[in-house]
Amino acid sequence: MSVLRVKSLRKRYGELEVVSGLDLDVQPGECFGLLGPNGAGKTTTLRLCLGLTYPDAGEIELLGEPVPARAREARARVGVVPQFDNLDPDFTVAENLRVFGRYFALPRPLVESKLPQLLDYAGLAGREDARITALSGGMKRRLTLARALINDPQLLVLDEPTTGLDPQARHLIWERLRRLTQEGKTLVLTTHFMEEAERLCHRIAIMDHGRLIAIGTPRQLIAEHIEPQVVEVHGTGIDSWLARARTVAARIERAGDTVFAYATDVRPVLSTLEGQGELSYLHRPASLEDVFLKLTGRDLRD
């Protein structure tokens, strides 16, 4: 049975339809990524799936329960990590966990028995009496993640879980999330970090303007939507080189002063760069970010 099933989902605000006929199916034990530019409808989709926003049309089934009719019952088995930490600064680390346990009507002895494991999971063992204001950004994010596990959820929903974190903190969160999927938890996450999606997600759905435009494993998306090799080129004289590159590359994209040459066989592209000392280049395999930019464009979204 699907953990989350969405069919023909629609949501409109005034004249703007932010979710337009969306279909999704999340299977048990997978990490499912929801990607898209700003304004693509990702956060609205999560709110609809959790019953926090009412749809205009469509069907939602969360952990076997119809949403929004029985959203409250479904959410009792869901953990949520919001986009921005909402820890209570008036409480200590342990008190934040205890109070959250009360929201699920968990017996106090059960919550107390969970605290050591959750604190260890968050890397905050020995810091249970610390105030939230004394924690670093990475510590707060790990505590928010641990708090979402207080009810031992079947599904964990994460909205941009590593935004604002430094690389060390981000990698630690990734390790914690991988551990959860290894333990059989189902994860649904939104992210703007393509490396994060590529590392963590078993399957990825890419949204734009409220619509689903691609879905598959990271490898499938790269194989289906992009040439396998990329050469990034920048430097003085790039315009004269560009004319030659267009004759040998399968596809050319330009962003500012950088040109991206895509090809199946990249050797002819590299040969045009021989003796071009004023140009710098990087040859690499195509990535999920290349797919994302091809499908959604390189224009800035605000």
Look at the structure and give the mean pLDDT.
92
How far from one another are the termini? 38 Å
Query: How would a textbook summarize the main sheet?
Result: 6 strands, mixed
Structural class, by secondary structure, is alpha/beta
Count all strands and give the number.
14
Rg on CA atoms, Å: 22 Å
H/I helix tally: 11
Strand order of the largest sheet: 6-7-8-3-9-10
The CATH topology name of the largest domain reads: Rossmann fold
Question: Would you give an account of this structure?
Answer:
This protein has 302 residues and is α/β, with parallel strands linked by helices. The chain folds into two domains: 4-217, Rossmann fold, CATH 3.40.50.300; 227-285, 2-Layer Sandwich (Alpha-Beta Plaits). Helices cover 34% and strands 28% of the residues. It is built from eleven helices and 14 strands. The strands form three sheets. Strands 6-7-8-3-9-10 form a six-stranded mixed sheet, with helices on both faces. β4 and β5 (65-67) form a beta hairpin. The longest helix has 16 residues, at 167-182. It is globular and about 70 Å long. 37% of the residues are buried.
Can I get a quick summary?
By secondary structure, the chain is α/β, with parallel strands linked by helices. It has helices at 42-49, 71-75, 93-103, 108-121, 137-147, 167-182, 194-200, 218-225, 238-245, 267-271, 288-296, and strands at residues 4-13, 16-26, 31-35, 57-62, 65-67, 78-81, 155-159, 186-190, 203-208, 211-216, 229-235, 251-255, 258-263, 279-285.
